[in-house]
Write a structure and sequence with these properties.
The protein is mainly beta. Helix content is about 10%, strand content about 55%.
């Protein structure tokens, strides 16, 4: 669950930067719309029994950021008392992107175990070059700042999620790898989405079954490539994540979709 981001100075620069962002780092959004709200129940495998340990919710609304139209997306995860006995989790993620999902700002405030920290990222695109300002408040309350010019488009956990929902499943081949550079407040690294094919997925309470595309989120850790999260997203225009399998250092967790509103397109992937 531990695994578990702009400032334009002048109006003319803002306009030229927006066109560059769209050409280089954006993607045509056909998956979601303003007003979408998704809720999840979180489960942890405790001594071979799946126990409900908390909830999560994600909302996306059309907003404004530094004078331009933007999407504001937020993800909130909260562990319950059962999880607190093992690992305290209070995470709040906030991201702004352009309307074509190029990242503008990202913030994560997290209480994980006995550690509280804040990650912030600001993205700017002067003269078509990606510039990233990083700010970290570590668990000791120390502030660390740095600015990098990656030389390529980079993303954060939220903007990667929003971007991945707009991939065309009909064009993916099983085993295909999609490289997505990801940043946090301290470093930048390449991560991957690997398409694993299609699968029918039943919800935890048996209320519905969906035909899903399966995508594995991979990253390199201690010299080894590891699967961190497996996403099951509906095989329709919405690409809703209906289940997430999370592979943690201290065990396995799952998130199941429990509610939705404001979705953009019909759920044609629903089997029953």
């Amino acid at each position: 669950m531990k695994k578990n981001i702009r400032l334009f100075v002048m109006f003319i620069l803002c306009l030229s930067s927006l066109s560059t962002v769209k050409a280089q780092c954006g993607i045509n959004n056909t998956a979601f719309q303003s007003g979408e709200y998704l809720s999840y129940d979180l489960y942890f495998n405790w001594k071979f029994v799946w126990v409900k340990v908390g909830t999560a919710s994600m909302s996306t609304v059309k907003s404004r950021y530094k004078g331009q139209d933007a999407y504001r997306a937020s993800l909130i995860t909260r562990g319950n008392n059962k999880l607190d006995n093992v690992f305290v989790m209070r995470d709040t993620l906030l991201s702004y992107t352009t309307l074509d999902i190029a990242p503008l700002y990202h913030r994560k405030g997290a209480k994980e175990g006995d550690r509280y920290y804040v990650d912030e990222l600001w993205y700017t695109y002067p003269n078509g070059v990606v510039n990233l300002r990083q700010h970290e408040i570590n668990s000791d309350g120390e502030h660390h700042w740095k600015t990098i010019t990656p030389g390529k488009c980079v993303y954060d956990m939220m903007s990667i999620y929003m971007r991945a929902r707009n991939f065309n499943g009909s064009q993916l081949k099983k085993g295909q790898k999609i490289v997505l550079p990801i940043a946090n407040a301290s470093h930048l690294q390449d991560t991957w989405l690997v398409y694993q094919g299609k699968e029918e997925v039943e919800m935890k309470n048996g209320s519905a079954t969906y035909r899903c595309l399966v995508l594995s989120f991979m990253e390199r850790e201690d010299g080894e490539v590891k699967e961190i999260i497996r996403f099951f997203v509906t095989d329709d225009a919405n690409h809703l994540p209906v289940r997430l399998d999370m592979f943690l250092r201290f065990g396995s967790a799952k998130a199941y979709l429990t509610g939705m509103k404001g979705i953009r397109s019909p759920l044609t992937s629903k089997v029953k």
